Amino acid sequence: MATRRGRLRTFSTKPGEPSEIVNAGIKSLYLTPRMKPKSDVCFESMPSEMLLEIFSYLDAVSLLSLGCVNKRFYELANDNEIWLKLYSSTLHSKWKMKSKQMEAVPLDCAALHDKKPGYWKKEYIFKQTCAFKTRVMRLVKFRDPYTGLPCKNKEAMKVSGLSWIIVLKDKNGKEHSAEKPNLSFKDTSVTILWYGTDWPSLDVLSTLKLFGVTPLLPDQSRPPNKNGPRRFSLIAEYHLADLTESSVALGADKLVQLFSLSPGLLLGIWKEKNEIAFVMANLHYNQLLERSILGSATVQYAVPPDKPLLDDIDSEYGLHDYSLHLDLHGRNCMYLCGSFKCLFCRKGDIENGYLRLRVVNLKDNRKHLPITGTLGICWETDVLKGKVKDCFVMDLTLLDETGKPFWCFSAPLHMELSTKSSGLYDYMGHIYTADYADSEGKVCVKFVWLEETEEYVIVSLVLYVSTKKVNSWYGTNY
Questions:
Q1: Among 255-259, 335-339, 354-358, 423-427, whose mean pLDDT is lowest?
Q2: CA pair distance 369, 334, nearest whole angstrom
Q3: Contact (Cβ atoms closer than 8 angstroms) between residue 82 and residue 61
Q4: Is pLDDT at 25 greater than 70 in this prediction?
Q5: Which site in 3, 166, 198, 446 is 20 to 30 Å from 437, CA atoms measured?
Q6: CA 468 to CA 477: how far, in whole Å?
Q7: Is the Cβ–Cβ distance between 230 and 215 less than 8 Å?
Q8: Which residues of 451-478 are buried (b: 16+ CB within 10 A; e: fewer)?
Q9: How far apart are CA 429 and CA 329, in angstroms?
């Protein structure tokens, strides 16, 4: 049997069999139009009543995700009856009722029809958010007597599902986000490292924003869903325009240059390509959970002002009984971890608007601090690793006389060779200095490099605390 489209061939049949019948059957087979297969039922074309019935079996996270599909799903996913059911079953005791009772709620029920669409969704999210923040903030109330900082930071981060992301914005408004960082936890800070191969060109970038990200509706029974609804809290915003031209590099090795942006951010730039290699953020634990959770996507969390406790008896109130916890590290390696008690300042040592707290005295070699290892900041990307020498990250935690954090920061510092000799008979090596300054104070550190033992020794460490900060904290008038 051979056929062509549009042409039929007549078959000869066996003797006694009518050929017309066979040919007629073949013609009917080819000339009858084919039946079109039934198209699959489209989910979006289903009646609203049926979709609402399906939506009523979903949890809150799934409903919020469905609301992002299109306008119709958004309106249906705002249904007050569905959200009232979720609200009553999980949050509010006076609305607790069985599912059968919920089905029996009359259509003219004031709780449903006197409210605008989406009212109970907002109420549900608000109550869940308040409960979530209360649960997390309760964990950070427990203080470590050694550092004065929350001792359950890691537990609070795990409970909240907290992570950190950066968003790079170019001059045309296009955004590029980087997630899944490499985390390194220390006693008083966390170092966050982002790297990859798809960074946008540095020449077109305008700003970099650092966010704390938590699930909008955390579920302790399962890990956070990246594609689910999330809450963003702005921690810091940095301007990148003309970065390499207007800023001085903190340090460099054969492959990258490090540029420091206050507060606590490091940008690694490839020397040959002048493009981003990695981004590193150093975040001090003091108020870290609050800054990462309680802010909004556009406004940073504002630390409430401290209420000064007045003391009319002590004539040198606010000048003594400070405690310092100091860490020096290079992201993964620790160089120094020390605590210093009973730091004080005499009134005569107040100069140029600063209180001087001498932690390590150049002339008292009994308190000089040896550094473990060679100072440097370690970095890595997908395929390369390196270490920029003569740089380190300083975590400083200064506590007041009650053990409360008074001045805290985590920032990268660079060592510079001093032209002055040590002036000490015990040390014949070169002197290096490292300085830090912000609105609350200054830090000046002096190191001596010992050739024989190949190690650094801190021979001087002085803190200069702003009198404006002291007066605001203690209610004094220095």
A1: 423-427
A2: 14
A3: no
A4: no
A5: 166
A6: 9
A7: yes
A8: eeeebbbbbbbbbbbbbebbeebbebeb
A9: 23
The secondary structure of 273-339, three-state, reads: CCCEEEEEEEEECCCHHHHHHCCCCCCCCCCCCCCCCCCCCCCCCCCCCEEEEEEEECCCCEEEEEE
What's the confidence (pLDDT) of residue 227?
A: 67
Place of tokens 């008690």: 341
Whole-model pTM? 0.81
191 closest CA partner among 282, 261, 268, 284: 282
Residues whose CB falls within 8 Å of the CB of residue 154, separated by 6 or more in sequence, listed in order? 185
Q: Which two tokens stand for residue 473?
A: 């904290």
What is the DSSP track for 7-33? B--PPP--TTS-HHHHHHHHHHHHHSP
Residue whose structure tokens are 């955390």: 218
- Amino acid at site 207: T
How far apart CA 444 and CA 295 sit, in angstroms, is 33
Q: What are phi and psi of 41, to 5 degrees?
A: -70, 125
Residue burial 91-128, b: 16+ Cβ < 10 Å; e: rest: beeeeeeeeeebeeeeeeeeebeebeebbbbebbbeeb
Mean of pLDDT over the chain: 83
